[in-house]
# Entry
Amino acid sequence: MRTTILQTAITLLMPLFFLFSLYLLFRGHNEPGGGFIGGLTGGIAFVFHAMVFDSRVTRRLFRLNPVRLIAVGLFLAIFSGVIALFAGEPFLSSVWADFYLPVIGRPGTPIVFDIGVYLLVIGVVVQITFTMSTL
Amino acid sequence: MAINSEILLFPLLTPLVAAVISLFFWQSARYQRIVFLLGILIYLFASIRLMTWVWTHGYITYQGGNWPAPFGITFVADLLSAGMIALTAVLAVMSALYFEGGIKNSKVSNIFHPTLNFLIFGLTGAFLTGDIFNLYVWFEIMLVSSFVLFTLGGSRSQLEGSIKYVAINVVSSSLFLAGIGVVYGLTGSLNMAALAAKLPLVENQGLVTLASVFFIVSFGIKAAIFPLFFWLPASYHAPPLAVSSLIVGLLTKVGIYTMLRFFTLIFTTDTGYTHTILLILSGFTMVVGVLGAAAQIDFRKILSFHIVSQIGYMVMGLAVYTPMAIAGTIFFIMHNILVKTNLFLISGLVKETHGTYALKKLGGVYHTFPFLALLFAISAFSLTGVPPLSGFWGKFMLALGGLEAGQMAIVGISLFVSILTLFSMTKIWGEVFWKKLPESTSMIINRQEDLLRSRFLMVIPVLLLTAMILLLGLYSGPFVDYSMRAAEQLMDTEGYINAVFMR
# Structure
């Protein structure tokens, strides 16, 4: 599907996809959104890119090995649970910091977990796209 | 009890962390292998630690994220689940040694080791979870990993076996989900302890029994009981031997484990109905499995039909439903996992020397490899239940439990099936070990010293397993004690509920 219109549109829309996926990720704790949905939206950017260009071009754009992203995501998710153990709470309990960051609010382990899920989902979606497009 | 939750989490998280680390080493098969072996040893250590802790202190519970019991995610370790995890660990270490010894020169896919870790992760989760929906999720983790392991390599026969396996498991999972839906609709809870407390109070007990049938069928497919066992012999030969003995050996036992859990804890109100179904099914499973084995002419196929037959014994203990019979089931699971795996690994060694599993082309093993023949004989006698080996104690406990409960028919069937088991073991012995080597067969390895030297890492697990089988038979006291206490704990529903709700 090599059309100039779509190619131009996707190039322009990709940052928007990303921004929106990050927005979904960070609003997720108390409102609809979160790591999984955010990750899917972020992954869509690459799926479209691979569709209108070529998966080889997308691979160059993506640079990382998606499997590495999956591994980092899983690691972050486990790590967010282990923090609770150091705080003397059972595994996966929420631990909150006592300061506020602009935009994000009070950071805690749930956001670390969600970022982990976000990376994992992007990694999985992109890996599936790459694998299927090289068949 | 929350303080000790890390003892419970240690075996659960070890395979997950190992899987993540081996994903980081995506490109290097060598590092993946090192990570896997280290991970599995730590897992063994962690599971033994969990088992000894549960033995001395009783239940351990963990409430995920510190949310209290009926709302949060509960994990519970009792003697049965801790014992199953320890067995998983032993089996995983043995299979890993055997496998790593065997693939020295062949290339292995870089998804293999992470997936194996995820499989163990799923198994551990299924043994530990105290929530039926989570059990479903753990099953899915386990199944998806096993689908990957079944299809790796992508040869025609593998794909054929895998399609059967995937299809039957999709059916099983959807029935499981339907059962969960009914139970949730009746009680509004998914926590096993909460269900155990609430289900007897449900007015419409007919619906409870209906839900229990969903679970019987679903777990019956997983455990390969009659008439749902046909996927097992059909797909068993798909992956490499050590992997398939790990997958199928453990997946069927997870089915048995969940049955034990559900039908001693949750569905205990209408035992006259549910346990009678189980009793009839167990009888058929034993007989059909052993007759199926008698008809086979392939070393590995005979053994995989025997798995089916042995599953019947395990279900029988549950169906008889006395502490003694359930203890017999638990002892039998221990015995069976060790013996069956050992027989499979030996059949793999014979394949290494002769290059085939077909009985017609095999022969002369006793003459060339007397040591291998001895190892096989010990396991085979143990499987059939010749005293004083481990199978005898398991069957003895089952028969005793059955006689105490007055279930003469099933005891009679189980003893009769033992004789048939002996018959098909004799068939393997005669064809593979005693018969002269057919002239058309050319052997790959034809001296015992060569086998021991070149396949050193593959012989070690067989030796270790044989030692464990002998220990389990000749020094069975502690193991019988363990099973008895685990069975008493299973029958004590109140204790489980109190442990989960920390009363």
Observations:
- Strands of chain B lie at 60-63, 74-77.
